[in-house]
Amino acid sequence: MSLLTQAPAETQAETQTPTERLMQPLMTQARALLRRYGTLGPVAFAMLMGGQVERISVTPKRLPPDPEELKTALLEHLAQQSATGQWQGAAIAAHFPLEQPSPEGFEDAIIGHVEMKDGSVLQATLPYRVTGGQLGGIIPRKVVFGEIHVNNTASTLFQFS
User: Fold this and answer.
1) Please, are residues 89 and 115 in contact by the beta-carbon 8 Å criterion?
2) Sign of CA dihedral 13, 18, 23, 25
3) Which distant-in-sequence residues (6+ apart) come within 8 Å of 44 by Cβ?
4) Most buried among 32, 104, 143, 144, by the most CB within 10 A?
5) pLDDT score recorded for residue 61
């Protein structure tokens, strides 16, 4: 098998930890939204007790104009649902300005945070830069991603029952 050939999905799923299995669709969805819209509102996923991963959303009466308000509403929803015992993990990704530019010189990042009921926690930081996308699409939008960094971190968002 060539180094450029991807392993079959079944093989990847078998070798990934549940935390990684939850992080992968979270970051994939965040990258896709960023490429499509040039910006990123918060996105969340949960892993059910059976291991299925599903996207989580909240439906506020009105969409908050500030992405921070939407992130707060989504975090509250995730915290409430994680306490019910129906999930083995929850994850959220959102845009964050970096305190210091990345090695690539990027000042923005997607931060993905995954917490599992067993206590395992991962946080991924993916720096990016968006250029173009002006003049009604005459100048095409280009999203350039830097190197992703994944760290184990402390559980901060959820209290699983």
Assistant:
1) yes
2) positive
3) 26, 55, 56, 57, 74, 77, 78, 90, 91, 92, 93
4) 143
5) 62
Task: Record the pTM.
Answer: 0.81
β pairing state of 43-48 and 53-56 = antiparallel
Q: Rounded distance, CA 74 to CA 45, Å?
A: 10
What is the rounded CA–CA span in Å between residue 11 and residue 31? 23
Q: How many helices (H) and strands (E) does the chain have?
A: 3, 7
The predicted-structure confidence for 6-59, as pLDDT tens digits, reads as follows: 444 555 556 889 999 999 999 999 999 999 888 888 899 999 999 999 998 776
CA quadruple 4, 128, 58, 37: dihedral, nearest 10: -90
Handedness of CA 18, 23, 29, 35 (dihedral sign): negative
